[in-house]
Amino acid sequence: MILMKQLDFTVHSNDRLNDQNHLLKVAPLNNMRLPEMHPGQFVQVRVDNAPHTFLRRPISINYADTQKNEIWLLVQAVGEGTRKICEMAVGAKLNLIFPLGNAFTIPSAPGNFLLVGGGVGTAPLLFLGNKLHEKGFACDFLLGGASEKNILQRPDFEQYGTLYCTTEDGSLGEKGYVTHHSLLQRKRYDFIFTCGPKPMMVAIARYAHEKGVGCEVSLENLMACGFGACLCCVEKTTRGNVCACTEGPIFNINELTWLD
Amino acid sequence: MARLEVTIGGLQLRNPVMTASGTFGYGTEYTDFMDLNRLGGMIVKGTTLEPRQGNDYPRMAETPSGMLNAVGLQNKGVDYFVEHLYPVIKEYDTHIIVNVSGSTVEDYVACTEKLAGLEKIPAIELNISCPNVKEGGMAFGTTCASAARVTHAVRQVYPGTLIVKLSPNVTDIAEIARSVEAEGADAVSLVNTFLGMAIDVERRKPKLSTVTGGLSGPCIKPIAVRMVWQVYHAVGIPVIGMGGICNWQDAIEFILAGATAIQVGTCNFVDPAVTVKIVRGIREYMERHGIASVSELVGGMELF
């Protein structure tokens, strides 16, 4: 069992990746060692006490750098809270509750694994790819975005597997959505992991279901606490309403009611 | 040494800081962050006779300095509580209070009867103020007659400390408080959430699946303080105050308005260790002001 923690961090670096996305690398104050974290888990960032950013913002763990004792947070400025996080200066303090949630299921034997991400939903797939790579398992990444500049961290992904892309404007990889990529027609996978906009994940889940391939999805339901107290982020599953923050955010598609 | 102990009905609390129902699960959700044994008391999640799945997603919307929720009393039912949750949480050294909810007077009574025999549940909080269920809930808390009726029925079967949690969605909360006091309530707790709503203007859709929901957080605090003050002057039983408490200053404010004890709700989500900080802050305030017992502060606001 993993102990959750509430700790103060400091921003080591904050790199602007495009007009909407920033990569923050944060480390605990006083050189406290980070606990073990798993791909798919997330943190709850306390933004400030301002009226419009009262609640914490859930951000998935992009990568856990155990050597530098840093957590990477890939943040897309979609609202006021995430915009403020993107604007945090190097040296700024931020309070995190972490690690939260369950994790992707790391396969026990090698196989053909596909990691499908859309937009900022690619974030947890980097950490997952890293863990698969550490186990010596090859994987393919299929990442989609509106345009080339929206496909983030390409060199990082390429360290851990083969990268395929789609863009809506055709500026990188195949033109269109990830669900239309030719890879899905020509290669047979043993398991698919996906994170991104819900319509994309539903389409991937349907594809996996039709092909008889196992599939895990990462949900980002609205939540207040992140640790199972508020009961706001529920997802309808085969066993009733469950908290996406504690029993997810990773779900096997067989548990969900998406394809009913 | 400042004395933080307070008395609510038959309960001697080690300090006036409790956690509000529906924001603290069964306490176990918080044990990684804080020591539950430092709480004055813990009010666990609203419990009903039968299991409830609650409302559909989306159930929450952040609003300025607060949030709307429409959870709808999702819980596994009182039998599950007694069999699976009680054996775990009874080991904690704090007062564990169960929030009892229902759709009919009979439900409240039957649910209470199942809790009455539990040695480590010295009190219940009767929830006649949940705004998020179709039947019962807040309906009981919005007229004196129905509030009195359910309090009367539960009082007949419950010998422990009976706290009644009041709805702020009424014309005169003091009148409701008097009606439950007359039926034997040992204390009142207030306020539950305010009925509110929020609209996604791009999609022209409500932000909650239920359209309306309960508003909580610092945005409601001034109204809650006013209501605690009104009720304190209307009844002779202890008042437990809540509504947006986030720090020790907020807690002291409620106590000065007339609260014997306070509950922390929504702020637990933002800082899961906030209650422990509030206890420390109250102690330091008392030492700084030379106050021997926290009970000296209750209703201690001075009028000019």
Architecture overview:
The complex is a heterodimer of chains A (260) and B (304). With 260 residues, chain A is an alpha/beta fold. Helix content of chain A is 16%, strand content 35%. Chain A has five helices and 15 strands. Chain A has helices at residues 80-86, 123-134, 154-158, 183-186, 198-211; strands at 5-16, 21-28, 42-46, 57-65, 70-76, 93-100, 113-118, 139-145, 162-167, 174-175, 191-195, 214-218, 234-237, 240-243, 250-252. In chain A, the strands form three sheets. In chain A, strands 10-9-8-7-11-12-15 form a seven-stranded mixed β-sheet, with helices on both faces. The longest helix of chain A has 14 residues, at 198-211. Chain A is globular. The mean pLDDT of chain A is 96. Chain B has 304 residues and is α/β, with parallel strands linked by helices. Chain B has a single domain, classed as TIM Barrel. The mean pLDDT of chain B is 96. Chain B has helices at 78-89, 105-116, 144-157, 173-182, 221-232, 248-257, 267-270, 274-289; strands at residues 6-8, 11-13, 17-19, 41-47, 60-63, 66-69, 95-100, 123-127, 161-165, 187-190, 194-197, 199-200, 205-206, 212-216, 239-242, 259-264. Chain B contains eight helices and 16 strands. Chain B is 30% helix and 22% strand. In chain B, helix 4 (173-182) links the parallel strand 9 (161-165) and strand 10 (187-190).
